[in-house]
Structure formats: structure tokens, C-alpha cells
Design brief:
Shape: globular
Structural class: alpha/beta
Strand content: 15-25%
Strand order of the largest sheet: 3-2-1-4-5-8-6-7
Oligomer: single chain
Radius of gyration: 17 Å
């Protein structure tokens, strides 16, 4: 699918069932061959450690094998059974569920994390509503998302994205569900080179075993090593050309 197959609202014309099935196939296969990366290795760890030190009830949704919250004492939810099995082997507490139907009581968590997930679902209102439902008053929410529909690339198709957000749209969506954005930072580990992305997609499609060897032993370690520290700014006012952000949000008190 190309950018030309967007709907009039600027979102790709795929159904919820299409996205769920496609994402499950892609990520089940990816996580079955990938290696678990510890949260401490990501550039999000200083922020996470700061927030985790003030919380006791933590939830991360759809971490795959790239969890950002501490493995101990965090509840993890994912649709991918290969990812859950590996997280469980590492000592994490896991549940098989989707973001639109979280199996927890209202107000169960005071720290919620959802990286790279809202862009994968058709019903983002329902998904964020579930995050808001299980978040206690005053809870922290970490959320990452790609920006600007006009920046759509073949990579978005390949990894199962449904949308990119205009900054005002994600700001308004969060506000409707009781979240304010406290600070934000440019985010993402996607290579800037379109040729490198095209090459990676080709090998994952046609030479998967070789591609995963390079991914696990070369590209992922290099990507982790050369991550830049996150530069957080108050509020959310992304500069031109920023195509993915990390948002630190706070749920309104009761």
C-alpha cells in the first residue's frame, strides 16, 4: 500500500481485523527470532528510572522484546505469545491481551507505558480510553508515536502502522481522555536512510534467517550503542521535520 491509498481523513484504508492479523503475523515472526533487550540499555532508562522510583504499580502495553519499564514488578501485556514467553522466562509478569481490552480494574496503575502502539490500531479512541481507565488519578503515561501523515513511508506499511498523527490531533486525543503533556522529546531508532530501510525490508522478506542474524548481532547492538540522550522540553511543540516523539503525560487528579 502506498500513501495514495489513504482515506479522506488521512489514514490508510485497512480494517481493524486486517491490522490485528497483519501485526500479529509480523511481530510473532520477529519476536520468535529476536533477542530480549534489557530496559536499562535504552536511552529512555534515565526517565523511566526517575518515574519508576516514585511508583509501585506499573503497566507496559505491547513491549514485544523491547520493554522500557523494569522487568521486576511491572505488568506486561502483549498480543504476541513468543514475546510473552521470552518475557516470562526473564522473570516478568505477563498477560496476553490487546490494548483495546485490558484485563485490569479501573485505576490499577500509577505508571503506564505504551510505546509505538496507538499508530497500529484503528480505534485509537478506545485504546487510549483503556489506558486512561486503568490509570489511577495522577498517573504518569509514557507514549511514543510517529507524526505527520505526509511523512508516510514504505516502512510504515511494512511494520503495520495505520496512521501518523498531526501534533494537534495527538494533543487533543490525550486531552479528551484526561491526559496533559508535561514534556516531550524527539524519539525513534528508525534509520534515516530510505535505502537502508528498503534493504532491511527486502532481506526480512526474502532472506529472513540471514536478516535476523544481522539484526540481533550487528544492527540492534549498534543502534543501542549510538542512541543519543533524550532532550526533553516542556510541553509539546515539535520542530519542523520531527517525525516521532516521546510524550511524558499526566492523568488528571480525580
Amino acid at each position: 500500500m502506498s500513501i495514495a491509498s489513504f482515506t479522506s481523513e488521512g489514514t490508510p484504508a485497512r480494517t481493524d481485523a486486517d491490522l490485528i492479523a497483519g501485526n500479529k503475523r509480523f511481530y510473532d515472526a520477529l519476536w520468535a527470532d529476536a533477542q530480549l533487550c534489557a530496559p536499562e540499555r535504552f536511552n529512555t532508562w534515565p526517565l523511566v528510572a526517575e518515574l519508576a522510583a516514585r511508583t509501585t504499580r506499573r503497566l507496559e502495553v505491547a513491549p514485544g522484546l523491547r520493554p522500557r519499564l523494569p522487568l521486576a514488578d511491572t505488568q506486561f501485556v502483549d498480543l504476541s505469545r513468543p514475546a510473552l514467553a521470552e518475557l516470562r522466562r526473564a522473570g516478568a509478569r505477563v498477560a496476553n491481551a490487546m490494548i483495546g481490552a485490558l484485563p485490569f480494574r479501573d485505576g490499577s496503575f500509577d505508571f503506564v507505558c505504551a510505546f509505538d502502539i496507538l499508530e497500529h490500531v484503528v480505534d485509537d479512541e478506545g485504546a487510549l480510553g483503556e489506558l486512561a481507565r486503568v490509570a489511577a488519578p495522577g498517573a504518569s503515561l509514557l507514549l511514543s508515536t510517529p507524526l505527520h501523515p505526509e511523512a508516510w513511508t514504505a516502512f510504515d506499511d511494512f511494520v503495520g502502522h495505520y496512521r501518523r498523527y498531526e501534533p494537534d490531533a495527538i494533543r487533543d486525543l490525550l486531552a479528551r481522555h484526561g491526559f496533559t503533556i508535561e514534556r516531550s522529546a524527539v524519539y525513534g531508532m528508525q534509520p534515516k536512510s530510505s535505502k537502508l530501510l528498503d534493504l532491511g525490508q527486502y532481506f526480512l522478506t526474502h532472506h529472513r534467517a540471514r536478516a535476523m542474524w544481522w539484526y540481533n548481532r550487528v544492527f540492534m547492538p549498534l543502534g543501542m550503542r549510538f542512541q543519543k540522550p533524550l532532550d526533553f522540553q516542556p510541553g509539546f511543540d515539535p520542530a519542523p521535520g520531527v517525525d516521532e516523539v516521546l510524550l511524558v503525560c499526566r492523568k488528571a487528579d480525580a
